Predict the 3D structure of the following.
Amino acid sequence: MIGRLAPVITAAFARHAVLLGTTLFMVMPFVWMVSLSFKSPDEFFQTRFGLWPETFHGIENYTRALTEVSLARFMANGAFVALSVLVLQILVAAPCAYALAKLRFRGSEALFALVLIGLLIPQEVLGLPLFILFHLLGLLDTYAALILPFAVSPFAIFLLRQFFKTVPDDMIHAARLDGLSELAIVWRIMVPTAMPALAAFAILSVISRWNNLFWPSIAISSEELMPPTLGIVFFHNEEAGNDYGPLMAAATLVVAPLIVAFLAAQRRFIEGVTMTSVK
Amino acid sequence: MTVTETISSPTPDRRHANAGRAAATGGSPARAEAAAGYALAAPAFLLIVLLVLVPTLGIFVIAVTDWQFGERSLDFVGVRNFVDLFGDATFRAAFFNTMAYVAVTVPGTTILGLAIALLIESGRSLRAFYRAAHFLPVMATLAAMAIAWEALLHPTIGLVNQVLGDLGLARPNWLRDTSLVLPTLMVIGIWQQLGLAMVLFLAGLKAIPQDLYDAADVDGADGWLDRLTTVTLPMLGPVTMFVTIIMALRAFEVFDTVRILTHGGPGNASETLLHTLYVESFEYLRTGYGAAVTLVFLLIVIGLTLVQAHVMDKRVHYT
């Protein structure tokens, strides 16, 4: 009996040993970041180190992160931009996806080809021409510069179109007989059927906006308009690397919302992020 | 939604809502339907044209000029920007560093992601914990985590060098040493993308039918290694191709860590394509030259995406 169980136990032990090792590698930057955010400056210049602070300096570090730079403002900017982009993307994409999925009109194939081209072009490629365009429009360094470039998501159109195609035509006919307008059909019939896809897309969209550094670095120079990514880089440059406590507190606060949301709704988040892969 | 569900090739199997329409509205239903189609699609159409199509075409035009942002005049220079590009030490460094970065991080994330997915699936306990822990970096804001990595790798007070010092080993300056800086960024890149490869492989593993394992069992392939080589790995072939390309696309886009941690230095030791694109276009304002860099980047990404589309087309037949 013991002879037969031994390999099983060894295998289980090896599995946990390896996975705990890789887990340590994955979480170490988070642990170190949070640990430093609780420490006083004296403590991290000591040669001895520990993960747990000797004197708890957290309140001071987090207060300084929130007061010395406008971290709260950066985070509010990030939330405002991410939500505005998401609302715009859905408002623009859903009607177009319905038209492509269910309506017959000349040029619809060409329009769909245009959507596919949009899927193909990475955002970084558009940085330079959009910088020029927004300069010409006089919109650089405004909220509009952070929001408008993402107003249309070819991926959202592509995704919703696929879902809308599965809605039976009879449902649409019935809705028309009930006197619903085409726009009402989009919002009352089609969009509710695509809620799971829309939820995953919403997560993907918000994560992409919150975490994006490239475009805000191009479009924004005023401190009061900075999203969290640009704000933390700004803070990093100001601090010049001497006072880690408040900087790590700021980094922790920037990372926290997505991590907390992820831990609360893991499955949805994984669905949302793996969807990017199709883009 | 799994990856498999969202992947499908665009097929022209549009079902028409015409017949019922005629009964409902009378008049010319086809024309009414077309009018509705145009109206509903118009905002998206105009925005794609304005924000994607025209800008993309614009790059091709700007790339053959010597335009400097802010100047009132520009000249047509043909392919000179591209000739200059490959003669420029910084661009060459960026190009080769990016290739090296991709060549290391793509196998790194793919192989480690596969190994970790297999290990997680091989047992029952702590599955959700391991999955979550390995996935954390994928969604954590990289700009903030880069700063955490900098603290971790600090030459004197960073955890890594404190441990190395305790072990009596050398304590290198990871981000300032010409030969170490790119490998260090590669490790951070692998750390960040590994979890994405892992969840894609986990989805792939779930899609393998149990029958195949049963059949392998009957055929005498009942050891874990036999099962792995006769069933699991062959069945994961298409997913592996797919993961490899996703990882490559993401690796080519490396920017945040370079921007925050190294600015491409020391020297050009960690210069990458997207960082050069950024510096040339938005710091030096060499717009024509920046457009040429952008085009090189675009060509690489489009090439990879077309390979991906081809692979996905194949993959549909598997599911």
